[in-house]
């Protein structure tokens, strides 16, 4: 992952996810993977080849997927339960609620290709609601890695955390970020750029775009702070409140619905502690149209230029 050409083109976090899982499974026989006829799209074919008896494929049956994964966890194994995030979190919501969250079962839910990664397949395959649905459930840590290095760290942490976890594993390529080599800790966000005029709080694939937007804003005389959120739940309340007090304006950016996701979480926090003017960039409570990722990012202002424009108007 250190090669300059690859770094410029970006990395598919699913590859980092699968490579890390294989490394961990090589030294820990308790690690297993569970898939719903999705070994290919979850990038688990190499895992299957290496550990054919440790990949359980339940077929296209997401409720069974989560139920079987919870059973494996209760039997003492460490299951990584993998499926397209749109189907994992929608079809199996009751099982996630009861078998994982309510039962406090230490299983790892892996939402693959979330957000608008399946852009051309339309709203049925867009996974823009997953963060909002899961955030209301107690006990589940929600981790949204921003690049390949952080994906590896999150997977390693989840394998030994012994608690319910949801990892949102993005599909489209993102560049490596400064600072993601540091140790991952739930509830600890990081300031990637200092600024006094406005704060951009970003999650997952949008962190690199936010960082580029801050550079564009600097050429316009605007000093923009960038906060990289590593977990939506728990949120780093202290860092966000500090930024709100020091800059007076907050813009959130996420590849998800702004209702109930990062924007909602930050607004709920600040409304109770330090009311602050806000703008939210993401999918604004509608079904996104069918189109490729670049088209959709442009459409909803989720590019560096779009983020910078929102900040300037603000």
What's a concise summary of this model?
This protein has helices spanning 4-9, 13-27, 45-50, 62-74, 85-91, 93-102, 130-135, 148-161, 206-219, 237-247, 262-273, 293-299, 304-313; strands at residues 31-35, 55-57, 78-84, 108-112, 141-143, 165-169, 190-193, 198-203, 224-229, 231-233, 250-257, 278-283.
CATH level-3 fold name of the largest domain: Rossmann fold
Q: Main β-sheet, in a few words?
A: 7 strands, mixed
Assign the CATH class of the largest domain: Alpha Beta
- The figure for the number of domains is 2
β-strand number: 12
Q: In angstroms, what is the radius of gyration?
A: 19 Å
Give the strand order of the largest sheet, numbering strands 1, 2, ... along the chain: 2-1-3-4-6-5-10
* Average residue-wise pLDDT: 93
Low-confidence stretches: none
Structural class: alpha/beta
CATH architecture of the largest domain: 3-Layer(aba) Sandwich
Shape: globular
CATH superfamily of the largest domain, by name, is: Thiamin diphosphate (ThDP)-binding fold, Pyr/PP domains
**SSE pattern, N- to C-terminal:** HHEHEHEHHEHEHEEEHEEHEHEHH
Strand content: 15-25%
* Termini separation: 37 Å
The percent of residues in helical segments reads 40-55%
Secondary structure tally, helices: 13
Task: List its salient traits.
2 domains, Rossmann fold, globular, 13 helices, alpha/beta
Describe it:
The protein is of the alpha/beta class. It folds into 2 domains: 4-169, Rossmann fold (3-Layer(aba) Sandwich), CATH 3.40.50; 190-313, Rossmann fold (3-Layer(aba) Sandwich), CATH 3.40.50. The chain is built from 13 helices and 12 strands. The protein has helices spanning 4-9, 13-27, 45-50, 62-74, 85-91, 93-102, 130-135, 148-161, 206-219, 237-247, 262-273, 293-299, 304-313, and strands spanning 31-35, 55-57, 78-84, 108-112, 141-143, 165-169, 190-193, 198-203, 224-229, 231-233, 250-257, 278-283. Strands 2-1-3-4-6-5-10 form a 7-stranded mixed beta sheet, sandwiched between helices. The chain has a 5-stranded mixed beta sheet with strand order 7-9-8-11-12, sandwiched between helices. The chain is globular. The two termini are 37 Å apart. The model has no long low-confidence stretch (mean pLDDT 93).
